[in-house]
Amino acid sequence: MASRVVADEHDSRRGDAPAASGGPLRRSATALARVAVPLAAGGSQLRLLVSLSLPFLALAVQSLLWRLVPSTWFLFFYPAIFFAAALAGLRAGLTSTALSAVLVWWFFVPPAQQLVKHTPAMLVPMSVFIGMGVAFSVFHERLRRAERDVAAATRDLATSLVEQAPDGILIADDAGRLTEANPAACHMLGYSRGELLGLTLLELLHTDDSDRIEDLWGLSGALESSVRRKDGTELPVEIRATRLTNGRWQAFVRDVSARRRVEEALRERQSDLDRAQSVAGVGSWQLDLRRDEVHWSDECYRLFGVPHGTSLTYGGFLDLLHPDDRADVDRAWRGALAGAPFDVEHRIVVAGEVKWIRERAEVDFDGAGLPLRGIGTMQDITLRKRADEALRRAHDVERRLRAELEDLTRAAAAVSEAVADLPRSDLATVLQVIARQAQTLTDARYVGLGIGTDPAVPFDPWIALGMPEEVARQIPRNPRPVGLLGVVARDNRIIRTRDLRRHAAFGGFPPGHPDMRSFLGVPIRFHGRPVGNFFLADKIGADEFSVQDQRLIELLAARAGAAIEIATRYVGEAFQRAWLQAVIDQLPEGVIVVDSESTIVLRNRVAAALARRSGLVGHPEDRLYDVREPSGAPVPFDRTPANRALRGETLVGVEYVIVGPDGRALPVLVSATPLVTVGEPAGAAIVFQDITALKELERLREEWTSVVAHDLRQPVAVIELAVEGLLRGLPDAAPERARRGLERIKTASRRLGRMIDDLLDASRIESRRLTVQPRRVDLAALAAGAVEQARETLPGAPIRVVAEGPQPAWVDPDRIQQVLDNLLSNAVKYGEPGREVRVDVGPRDDAVELVVTNHGAGIAPDQQRSLFCRFARTREAREGPVPGLGLGLYISRGIVEAHGGRMWVESTPGATTSFHCLLPRGPAPD
Questions:
Q1: What is its main location (predicted)?
Q2: 804 contacts: CB under 8 Å, gap ≥ 6
Q3: Please, what CATH class does the domain formed by 262-333+354-380 belong to?
Q4: What does pTM read for this prediction?
């Protein structure tokens, strides 16, 4: 419309200043008006001539018809004046009025063709005629002015709309060259108005759309294309072209990029929705109730196997359902139209396959409560239905198996009770219970259970149920594993047959045996080894035993195998246990066997006599026996011989004291060893020997040793005093041989004195009468002093002390000096000559450790255990030139243990030997 306004004629009085102040289209309109003014002037003269000719035309017509319509002077002049004013305006209308009045006055007012009339009455109609002409002229003038005002307002409005339009508006001439463009088009294309004018629309369009735009010029239609912006980018647009009345073209160009993005997003979402529906097996649908039209998504067509795009009605939809489900679905849908929820499951048949579909929908109603449409979904639930059916069958199987399991559990419980009742029951009782349970589980009339595989030996034992006693007495002996029974027993085969008489292995019944038909034979195994056999015959209420019966008996056989094995072994074990008890009761030593919980399971008469109260087997070992250390201190629970053996220790000849029921302390030597099963301790065996007589002999020996040592000390002391007196009184001129002899006597007497002291210390240690007087002592300083003395008595021996500062210890310094003298003497005597002897003193946990190390041949591991015994010497020491009694280390360990410490040796043969003494740390000073 704006283009048409631009193409119209312009009023000359509105084409000046107002137009110049507008935008580009306003300026264009002003220019067009200036061009149109001369053209309009030429047209006005022509219209004036035509309008002035109309009165003469009216004169001609009225002259021709005057005779037919006389006295109608102004009949044809009124239209002439009206059309003249309408055609040429006010001046033409007034001129035509005046000319028409003259022509009428001259030609038609009588007397005709005379200027002066003698009828004054004619002046009135003439005045009316002239007044009507003037009115016609004024009316048309005002009308033309109103049209010009409306046209100008319309042109201004069109120009404003074009300037502010969001779409691009382009005006082109007949050649397609752009002559006008609004701001939106310039902004859209990226050109200024001056750059855009002069271009053709084809230069802006995509090359492939040139033919389409040419067709568009001819059809005045619309198309979607893309235009090239100034920066070279492509912009999707919609173009509508219209031919204007002045021969020009007007094109509306709309940017559709946002719409394209929305459409693309919608297509992607629709694609995602279709894909999601396909993956989930869910389709969506709508039912227009007024038009009876069903609209499906792609997935609905796929689910029903209907070609995509097929038109459907509600009735057509029902025809696609399974015939047995149509009425139910229709009933549910009618309920939904009444306001009920719609949620149904139905079947369809697609390519011969039955599928299950679940449909859910909601119905939209109008304001009057009438249904408008239904919106719903459909889902393929075929897999779920199949799973439900499989689950239902599984539940049926589960219920059947649960019932079987309960029956089997009751049977196994009865068998377990029979086994648990041993030894009050016997093997035959256990077998009787097992056979009874097999009969209960299968409703068998006859049940046999036998043990044995040798075809020459009858089953023993043999349990038979269901056979009357008088019939059983007619059968001379138990059956043997031959024929059909042998196939089960010897070949470990399961046999289930409808008629045992037709089986190839059947060898007939013995005389007096009842007739039997159906048969089920199942071997009983334990860890793959045959331990018995089930033989069942004649199922009550059926012609043969079922697969379920066979499975139940197999399961019972799996459990019965262990029960039979336990019962059989229990009988054999009872005999062996009685034999073992008889043997150990004859032993002079006490014997105790405990389980893994330290509970006594076996003991002999000697062990029973030493219990502090009359306890029976089955009580914990520590409650029946009062075990103490040789010193009389109670043995902690975790240090008892039984618990030590249960931890994996092996005790050989360890001395303890057992307080008997009469309160008398009995010295014993205890040996204990763990009993291991499958790598785990299952118990322990403890043997203890009464050493009262041996202890008495040791006491007498110690007393004799003490007396002898005491009696020898006095003469040795006299000899040593005498020798010292002789040496002091020996004149200087005495022979050197005499002086050396006296020195040898003095050295020998001292050695003999030390030997006597060692014997006394050994006696005190043995009788536990060795006493110490501990006090706070710096063990590092004590060791350094001992080393200085050793350097004087052992010249040339390199000895070094290593200590980390003062090391306070709670010890008797004289006794520890004695230990150091012995260890240093041994280290020098038995070490490599010239090699360093090292003494280390340092802390260790809450004690102080003293270590003496030398280099030499070392001590073999098998000799280290006896190294601290009385009179014990290594093989190398006994065979070597160094004399000794073998009491030094025994006394040293006794002194260390008297302090509450510990002493041990670590030796690497051919390298080093270290003696370790762990002594208590001194208390903090006040």
A1: membrane
A2: 841, 842, 843
A3: alpha beta
A4: 0.35
